[in-house]
Amino acid sequence: MYFSDDTIVYLNGDWVKAGEANTSVYSQSLHYGTSVFEGIRSYEVNGKARLFRGLDHMERLIFSSHAIGQPFKMKANELMQIAHELLQRNHMTEAYIRPLVFSAPMMSLSFSEEAYFMMCCWPWKKLLGDQLTTLAISPFSRPHPKSCKIEAKIGGHYVNSILASTEAKARGYGDALQLDVEGHVAECSGANFFFEKNGVLFTPSRGHILPGITRDTIIQLCKKLKIEVRQQRIYTHEVFGSDSAFLVGTAAEVTGIKSLDDQPFKKEWSTTLGHHLQKAYESTTRSEEVWEKMHF
User: Fold this and answer.
1) Which of 17, 48, 73, 153 is catalytic?
2) Which sign does the torsion angle of CA 116, 117, 120, 125 carry?
3) Could you tell me if residue 280 is inside a domain?
4) pLDDT category of residue 128 using cuts at 50, 70 and 90
5) Alpha carbon 145 to chain centroid distance?
6) SS in 3 state form for the chain?
């Protein structure tokens, strides 16, 4: 359960109990998926809640909103203030925060004339746990970048992710590795993908993926740790037989991968670059480290 009788959420300028929050069943977002959202983690640092790269997340929320024509007018700093008050009202420091921009009542296939806004939070452990996960190559490819705003975090896009994830789990795997429509490796159902080969990390380049903020953090960490990262188009045969692999995302954080389509990776996880970065990421989320701003 994500909320209790005492949980407070922010909805269209008001603070209300989660169980009493309501909106119109004629919202365009409910019918057609025209919502945008973020997932942000708050970590306790020196006894206080710290939103890890919170401003970047809020800026992407605004970018995504405008990408699909949502007339969303709130600013990133205002959204950050709401997030901190949300945590205070729910007596949380470590939490997962979900801001959501959605459409007013409207049934036509055109831009909504008004944007609604909600923000909630809940305690959420690492999405895939601390164990290594297994991947299966999905029969569901990622959307073509000419079919949608691929770099925006849009609610409707996640039907594709749910199809891929559900199909993989039905076959006994932990998650799905999706390819783009041209057969290149893209991303996992809700996270970005890296693999290691001969001391170098590889990750799919932008264009057919959602370029995640955690992905950007890992790339910045690699620069600081002098780990070479190559962003490029990748075929599956390049992943098979490589040394290790891992996925990254706000919900998943950094999760090691045991195998792809039942073919194990060569290295023990504890000896990999991914494991090293997993520990570095866990440390930096609870620090005051400053990051280069992400451009959307």
Assistant:
1) 153
2) positive
3) yes
4) low
5) 18
6) CCCCCCCEEEECCEEEEHHHCCCCCCEHHHHHCCCEECCEEEEEECCEEEECCHHHHHHHHHHHHHHCCCCCCCCHHHHHHHHHHHHHHCCCCCEEEEEEEEECECCCCCCCCCEEEEEEEECCCCCCCCCCEEEEECCCCCCCCCCCCCCCCEHHHHHHHHHHHHHHHHCCCCEEEEECCCCCEEEECCCEEEEEECCEEEEECCCCCCCCHHHHHHHHHHHHHCCCEEEECCCHHHHCCCCEEEEEECCCEEEEEEEECCEECCCCHHHCHHHHHHHHHHHHCCCCCCCCCCCC
Which of 74, 94, 122 is a domain's end point?
122
223 is catalytic: no
Domain boundary among 122, 147, 170: 122
| Domain of residue 18, CATH code | 3.30.470.10
Identify whether 198 is part of a domain.
Answer: yes
pLDDT band at residue 130, thresholds of 50, 70 and 90? Answer: confident
- Is the overall model pTM greater than 0.85, yes or no? yes
Query: 255, 17 in Cβ contact below 8 A?
Result: no
